[in-house]
């Protein structure tokens, strides 16, 4: 089922349809009529951030933090509410909504529940963010036994709402920790497990993230690795043994059948996948972590799907590190709502990059800033060979604090002018690559974005320090806005 190389389809200049009048979130059903309407939506005032205590040595449950990001607020850059989970060791990771812009126009739907899958425990928490957005409360817990027995799946990762009102969650593997690609389907009203989304006997060997686009009858999922291997940390001996993903997996949206695999290279570990927001566009980008490459995927003239590498972050020759060469380690990517800019984070090198993707086949680097990482001057790592930099970057300080870790999860404001950044990847890997994170806690930063010419600048007045939490330093991960954002909303 490996996809053969195909002639490149003519690149589509993907732009959203002309914007109609901007609807307030919820006025005509959840979300916005189009991506360009969303760009005119309200400025974010609070964000939700899962915070993790697993592997920190602190016997505390993970919690959902509500962070004030309104510059006019007296509580700016502060955690204003904490919702602890009722169990230990969950490893909250990525979150999603009960409904989003895929249901726009359905006035019976409200974006009032946040879905929080637990990567390690396989629990799924449903949080009420509608009753009091600034003080969420727990609404329902889906027990791991239900996930195991009803779906034969485990290690849930990405949650997306569907236009049908259902909720779909991708997984990394089966209950025993073996790799397996599949999807949990939840009822959008009761949040009971309905079963598996996928149909047929054939499934991919691994799973991770996904994005769907009904106009092209397609869902594409990615592969991180085998849960029982990567769960304890990154072991270089696992490389070349088929324990990390290498494929984009293509599904027929209508029949739910697995129809094609696109090989993006051995040990590539393709993680976050994003279609262009314009629902007419049959293309998008995926970030490959270990190979540190960005691939553009697209529908070919034959009607199948293919991928081509369009960005390669060169590894740096180093001393004083795990391996003689250090990859950039692309861990998160996103696309601005007007499909003009692509952003991604290099967790190990420590930089965030902005590319102009007006020509999707030839992204152009227009912004870059270092905010931590493993190659700063004065640290344990010496860079001996570097294709990009003349010297190692300066250590990153903000408000007098030396920031541990590297840039990881990113989220863009609806208008594209502010990029939020957190520094924790996954507790077991944090412990290995950035042990200071477990001692000092992670942070959330904000970058100002030049949306005209391109460019990134650190906002020196913004810092959320999760090292100062009442229960001790914790690991902050993904960022969500109450009204939806460019990594959770899908237009159909």
From TrEMBL:
**Pathway membership, UniProt:** Organosulfur degradation
Keyword line: Acetylation, Cytoplasm, Membrane, Nucleus, Oxidoreductase, Protein transport, Selenium, Transport
Localisation = Nucleus; Cytoplasm, Cytosol; Membrane
Quick check: keyword Nucleus in the entry? yes
Among the Pfam families in the record, one is SBP56
Return one GO MF term.
Answer: methanethiol oxidase activity
What is this protein for, i.e. what is its function? Catalyzes the oxidation of methanethiol, an organosulfur compound known to be produced in substantial amounts by gut bacteria. Selenium-binding protein which may be involved in the sensing of reactive xenobiotics in the cytoplasm. May be involved in intra-Golgi protein transport.
Recorded protein name is Methanethiol oxidase
Tell me the lineage of the source organism: Eukaryota, Metazoa, Chordata, Craniata, Vertebrata
């Amino acid at each position: 089922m490996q996809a053969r190389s195909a002639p490149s389809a003519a690149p589509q200049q993907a732009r959203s349809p002309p914007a109609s009048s901007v609807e307030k979130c919820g006025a005509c059903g959840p979300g916005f009529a189009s991506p360009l309407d969303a760009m005119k939506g309200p400025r974010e005032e609070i964000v939700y951030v899962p915070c993790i205590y697993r592997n920190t040595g602190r016997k505390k449950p993970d919690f959902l933090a509500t962070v004030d990001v309104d510059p006019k607020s007296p509580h700016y850059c502060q955690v204003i509410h904490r919702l602890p989970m009722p169990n230990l060791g969950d490893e909250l990771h990525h979150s999603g909504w009960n409904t989003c812009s895929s249901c726009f126009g359905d006035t019976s739907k409200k974006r009032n529940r946040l879905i929080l899958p637990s990567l390690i425990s396989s629990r799924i928490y449903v949080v009420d963010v509608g009753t009091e957005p600034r003080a969420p409360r727990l609404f329902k817990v889906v027990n791991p036994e239900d996930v195991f027995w009803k779906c034969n799946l485990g290690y849930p990762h990405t949650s997306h709402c569907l236009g049908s009102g259902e909720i779909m969650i991708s997984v990394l593997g089966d209950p025993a920790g073996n790799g397996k690609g599949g999807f949990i389907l939840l009822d959008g009203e009761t949040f009971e497990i309905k079963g598996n989304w996928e149909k047929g006997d054939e499934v991919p060997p691994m799973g991770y993230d996904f994005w769907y686009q009904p106009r092209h009858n397609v869902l594409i999922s990615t592969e991180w690795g085998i849960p029982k291997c990567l769960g304890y940390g990154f072991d270089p001996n696992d490389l070349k043994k088929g324990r990390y993903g290498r494929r984009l997996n293509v599904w027929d949206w209508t029949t739910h059948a697995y129809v094609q695999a696109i090989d993006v290279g051995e040990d590539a570990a393709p993680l976050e996948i994003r279609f262009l927001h314009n629902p007419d566009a049959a293309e998008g980008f995926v970030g490959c972590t270990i190979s540190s490459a960005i691939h553009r995927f697209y529908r070919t003239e034959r009607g199948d799907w293919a991928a081509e590498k369009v960005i390669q972050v060169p590894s740096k020759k180093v001393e004083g590190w795990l391996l003689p060469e250090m990859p950039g380690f692309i861990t998160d990517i996103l696309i601005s709502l007007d499909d003009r800019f692509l952003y991604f984070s290099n967790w190990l090198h420590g930089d965030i990059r902005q590319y102009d993707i007006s020509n999707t086949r030839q992204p152009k680097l227009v912004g870059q800033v270092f905010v931590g990482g493993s190659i700063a001057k004065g640290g344990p790592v010496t860079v001996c060979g570097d294709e990009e930099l003349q010297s190692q970057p300066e250590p990153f300080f903000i408000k007098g604090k030396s920031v541990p870790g590297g840039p990881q999860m990113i989220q863009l404001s609806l208008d594209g002018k502010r990029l939020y950044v957190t520094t924790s990847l996954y507790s077991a890997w944090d412990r290995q690559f950035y042990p200071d994170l477990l001692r000092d806690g992670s942070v959330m930063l904000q970058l100002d974005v030049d949306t005209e010419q391109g460019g990134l600048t650190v906002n020196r007045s913004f810092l959320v320090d999760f090292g100062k939490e009442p229960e001790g330093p914790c690991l902050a991960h993904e960022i969500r806005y109450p009204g939806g954002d460019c990594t959770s909303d899908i237009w159909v």
